[in-house]
Design a protein that fits this description.
The complex is a heterodimer of chains A (398) and B (346). With 398 residues, chain A is α+β, with helices and mostly antiparallel strands. Chain A has 12 helices and 8 strands. In chain A, 32% of the residues are buried. In chain B, strands 1, 4, 5, 6, 7 and 13 form a 6-stranded mixed beta sheet that branches. In chain B, helix 7 links the parallel strand 9 and strand 10. The longest helix of chain B is centred in the C-terminal third of the chain and has 20 residues. The N and C termini of chain B lie far apart (60 Å). The chains are: A alpha+beta (398), B alpha/beta (346).
Chain lengths: 398, 346
C-alpha cells in the first residue's frame, strides 16, 4: 500500500506528460478516427448484405462466370453470346480504353495545332482558331455527339452504293471498311529490319549527344533516325518481294464482310470527344506558351539559337510545366465523357456492362461498384502516367 | 461538364445505395404499401417514358395507355379516384431499382415476366395484362418475308430489356450471323433505323406497331410475321408485401371478370340491380370480399365505373378504337379463344 502511494505521483506525472505529448495525442486521434471509419464501412457492407438477403435479391460476384447470351457489335477480343459476363466485362473495358486512347491522341494533336494557331500573327488563322474554340467549347458534348452521329449517318450511302476509297477501302452508312493487311511468309524480315532500325536510331542518338557535349559539333539525328526506322523496313519489304496481302471487304447480303470494320458509332464518338476536348486543350496550350516570358525567347536568340531551336529547347520545356497539370484533367474528362457512348450505340463499358449485364443479372450493387472501380482505376492510371511525365519535365533545382 | 451519362450512372448508383444503405429504418418500420398509399392519398406508379398505347404523356402532360389504365384502376380501388396517381416515367434500366428502393408503389411498364426477374430481384409479377412476343420491323423495300432472311443483317435494339437475349437466341438457334446495335433510348435506336444504319429494329410486337406509326412514312415499313419469344407483360410489386401483391393481382382479375360478365363502364349502374350472383359478388352487392383485401366493398364497381373493363381498356388504348389497331389475339378472354383468364370472385 505504502509503496503504491509513494509511486503514484511519479507515475501520474509520467502518464500525463505522455498524454500531453502532441505526437502521442495525434496518433491516438488518428487511431480513433480510423476505427470509426472501419466501423462505418463494416456497418454499411453488413447492412447491404443483410438487406439484399432479406429482400431476396441475389448478391455476390458469381454471375461473372455465367454465360452472357447477348452479342456486342464491336469486340477487340474473341467474344460471342456463349462467352461469360466476365468476358463481356473485358470487351466493354477494352472498347472504352480504345476510345480513350485514340481520343486522347487526337484531342492532343488538334488542341496543340489550334492553340498555336490562336497565337498566329496571321489574322485569318487566329480568328478561325478562336471561333473553333468558342463554338465547340460552349456546346454540350451530348449534343455534339448526336450531331456527328446523325448528321454524318444521314449523308452516307447504303452498302450497295458505298463510296470506294483509293486503296480498296469502302465507306457507307454501316461504317468504314479498311482492307486488312495479311502478312505472308517472308514478312518476318520486315519486322526484324524495323527492330534493327529502331536500335540503330537509339545508338545514333546517344552517340550524337556524346559527341556534341564533347566537341560541340552537331549531327542531323532526326533525319538519320527517320531513315533507319522507315527506310530499313521499306528496303527489307521490297527485297523480300512485297510479302503482304490484303483482305478486302466484300458486300455479302446486307453488309460488307472481311477487312477491318470501323463502326460509324466509333467514328462519331471519336470526332465528338476529341474535337470537344481539343477546344479546352487549345486554351491550355495558348496559356502555356503565353506563360513563358518574352525575355526567354530574346535571350535564346541573343545566344544565337535559331527560331526552331529556341522554341524547342527554351520555350516548349518551360511551357510544358504550365500545360501538363491541366492537360491531365482534360485527359481524365475525356475518359469519363466517353461513357456518353451509350447514347449513340457504341458498345463502351457503360453500355455493355453497366447497361446490358446489369439489366440481365439485376445485380445493381455489384455492377455499379465494379463500374466505379473501373473508372477510378482508369483515371488513376492516367493521372499516374501524367504525374510521372510532369516530374520528368519539372524544373530541376541545381 | 461531367456529362449526362455520368449523371445517369450516378442516379443508378444513388438508387442502389439508397435502397440498400438507408433501408434499416424502412425495414424495421416496414410500413405496408397499402397504408402508405392511403396516407399519401396518391398512388406512385412507374410507367414507360413514352410508348404509345401502353404509357405515354400527351402535349398537355396527360398520361394514357394500357399500363396507365392499370395505375388508374389500382388508384380507384384503393383511393376511389382515378386521378390520384403520380406517374413516374422510368427507363428500362432504372425501373426495378426504383421499385426496390420504394420510390414506386407499383411498376406498370410493359415489363416481361421471367424467372430471373421473379426470383432474384425481390419483386413479384402480379399478373399478365398483355401477352406479347418479340418481332422485327423492316423496310418494305428490303422485300423480306420471314425473320430467317435476316442473315448477316444489322439489328437495332434498345438496351436493358430481354430483347437483346431473345435476339441472340433467335440467330443462334437458326445458326445465322447478325450484328446488334444497342442504344439506351428508343428514340436514338429508331433514328438509327430510319437512317438505314440497321436493317431491322426489334422489340415486342406491340411496340413495333406503335413504332411503325411514329415513322415518317408508316407504309414503308412492315412488321415480319415471326414472333421469336414469349413476352408476358404485367404489373410488378415488391415481394415483401403480400397484401399489396394480392390487391394488384385482384384489380387485374376484376377487370377481366367484369368483361367476362359483360359489365361495362356504360352499363355498370344498371348491372348493380342484376340478379346474376357472379355480378352481384363482383360489384360488392353480395359477400364482403373487399374487406379481405383491405378495401371498400364496392372496389370493383368503382374500377369499372371509372376505368372500364379489360376489353374496353384494351380497345381504347391499343385495339380497334386506338390508332395502333393491334388485333386482340392472345389477349382475348379464355372463352373467346385467348389466354386471359381470371379466377372467380366468390
Amino acid at each position: 500500500m505504502a509503496a503504491s502511494t509513494s509511486i503514484r505521483p511519479g507515475r501520474r506525472a509520467w502518464l500525463t506528460g505522455y498524454i500531453y505529448r502532441p505526437e502521442v495525442r495525434q496518433a491516438v486521434y488518428q487511431v480513433v478516427l480510423l476505427a470509426a471509419l472501419a466501423f462505418v464501412v463494416i456497418w454499411v457492407v453488413n447492412n447491404v448484405a443483410e438487406n439484399l438477403r432479406r429482400q431476396n435479391i441475389a448478391s455476390g460476384f458469381d454471375f461473372l462466370g455465367r454465360t452472357s447470351g447477348f452479342d456486342v457489335s464491336q469486340s477487340l477480343i474473341e467474344y460471342s453470346n456463349l462467352s461469360t459476363y466476365g468476358r463481356a466485362f473485358w470487351v466493354g473495358l477494352l472498347n472504352t480504353v480504345l476510345v480513350a486512347v485514340l481520343g486522347i491522341v487526337a484531342a492532343t494533336a488538334i488542341g496543340f495545332v489550334v492553340g498555336i494557331a490562336r497565337l498566329s500573327s496571321n489574322w485569318l488563322i487566329a480568328r478561325l482558331a478562336t471561333a473553333y474554340v468558342e463554338i465547340v467549347r460552349n456546346l454540350p458534348l451530348l449534343l455534339q455527339l448526336f450531331f456527328w452521329y446523325f448528321a454524318v449517318l444521314k449523308n452516307l450511302p447504303s452498302p450497295r452504293q458505298s463510296y470506294v476509297l483509293p486503296g480498296g477501302a469502302t465507306f457507307n452508312v454501316r461504317g468504314l471498311y479498311l482492307p486488312a493487311p495479311v502478312p505472308q511468309p517472308g514478312f518476318e524480315a520486315v519486322a526484324i529490319a524495323f527492330a534493327a532500325g529502331l536500335l540503330l536510331a537509339i545508338a545514333v542518338w546517344r552517340w550524337a549527344r556524346r559527341r556534341q557535349s564533347l566537341t560541340g559539333q552537331r549531327f542531323p539525328v532526326f533525319w538519320t533516325a527517320l531513315l533507319a526506322v522507315v527506310g530499313l523496313p521499306l528496303a527489307a519489304f521490297f527485297a523480300a518481294g512485297s510479302p503482304l496481302g490484303f483482305d478486302y471487304p466484300v458486300l455479302r447480303g446486307f453488309n460488307f464482310e472481311g477487312g477491318i470494320p470501323v463502326l460509324p458509332e466509333l467514328i462519331a464518338l471519336l470526332l465528338g470527344l476529341s474535337m470537344y476536348t481539343a477546344s479546352f486543350i487549345a486554351e491550355i496550350v495558348r496559356a502555356g506558351i503565353l506563360g513563358v516570358p518574352k525575355g526567354q525567347t530574346e535571350a535564346a536568340q541573343a545566344l544565337g539559337l535559331s527560331r526552331g531551336q529556341s522554341l524547342r529547347l527554351v520555350v516548349i520545356p518551360q511551357a510544358a510545366r504550365i500545360i501538363i497539370p491541366p492537360l491531365t484533367s482534360q485527359y481524365l474528362n475525356l475518359t469519363k465523357n466517353s461513357s456518353l457512348a451509350v447514347a449513340i450505340g457504341y458498345p463502351d463499358f457503360v453500355s455493355v456492362f453497366t447497361g446490358t449485364v446489369l439489366n440481365q443479372t439485376g445485380q445493381a450493387v455489384e455492377v455499379i461498384l465494379i463500374t466505379m472501380g473501373v473508372f477510378l482505376t482508369l483515371s488513376l492510371v492516367t493521372a499516374l502516367c501524367m504525374n510521372w511525365f510532369n516530374r520528368r519535365m519539372a524544373l530541376v533545382d541545381r | 461538364m461531367e456529362s449526362n451519362a455520368m449523371t445517369h450512372l450516378a442516379r443508378g448508383a444513388f438508387l442502389a445505395a439508397a435502397a440498400l444503405i438507408a433501408m434499416p429504418s424502412a425495414a424495421s418500420a416496414q410500413q405496408k404499401t397499402l397504408d402508405a398509399v392511403k396516407q399519401r392519398g396518391q398512388l406512385v406508379c412507374g410507367v414507360n417514358v413514352g410508348l404509345a398505347g401502353f404509357g405515354a404523356a400527351d402535349d398537355k402532360g396527360i398520361w394514357t395507355g394500357l399500363d396507365v389504365d392499370y395505375c388508374k384502376a389500382i388508384a380507384v380501388a384503393v383511393l376511389g379516384d382515378a386521378n390520384k396517381v403520380r406517374y413516374v416515367p422510368t427507363t428500362t434500366k432504372e425501373r426495378f431499382t426504383a421499385l426496390q428502393s420504394r420510390e414506386l408503389d407499383v411498376l406498370a411498364r410493359n415489363t416481361t415476366w421471367t424467372i430471373a426477374r421473379d426470383s432474384s430481384l425481390g419483386l413479384s409479377f402480379a399478373g399478365v395484362n398483355y401477352y406479347d412476343g418479340q418481332g422485327f420491323i423492316v423496310k418494305k423495300s428490303a422485300n423480306l418475308k420471314t425473320g430467317k432472311q435476316l442473315a448477316g443483317a444489322t439489328v437495332c435494339v434498345q438496351t436493358g430489356t430481354t430483347t437483346e437475349l431473345n435476339l441472340a437466341d433467335f440467330f443462334r438457334s437458326n445458326s445465322l450471323q447478325y450484328k446488334p446495335l444497342v442504344f439506351e433510348k428508343l428514340d436514338e435506336a429508331l433514328r438509327a433505323y430510319a437512317a438505314d444504319r440497321c436493317d431491322s429494329f426489334t422489340t415486342d410486337a406491340s411496340g413495333l406497331y406503335s413504332v411503325r406509326l411514329q415513322m415518317a412514312k408508316p407504309d414503308d415499313h412492315v412488321v415480319l410475321p415471326d414472333i421469336i419469344s414469349k413476352e408476358p407483360l404485367g404489373p410488378v410489386v415488391r415481394q415483401d408485401d403480400f397484401q399489396w401483391f394480392t390487391i394488384v393481382k385482384w384489380v387485374h382479375f376484376a377487370l377481366l371478370n367484369a368483361e367476362e360478365a359483360g359489365v361495362t363502364q356504360a352499363n355498370v349502374d344498371q348491372m348493380l340491380a342484376s340478379a346474376n350472383p357472379d355480378i352481384k359478388r363482383l360489384l360488392g352487392k353480395e359477400g364482403d370480399f373487399g374487406k379481405g383485401l383491405g378495401l371498400d366493398n364496392d372496389w370493383a364497381y368503382r374500377i369499372v365505373k371509372q376505368v372500364g373493363n379489360y376489353g374496353e381498356v384494351f380497345e381504347r388504348n391499343v385495339g380497334a378504337d386506338s390508332r395502333i389497331k393491334i388485333d386482340r389475339g392472345l389477349n382475348r378472354l379464355w372463352n373467346k379463344g385467348g389466354l386471359q383468364y381470371a379466377p372467380p370472385i366468390r
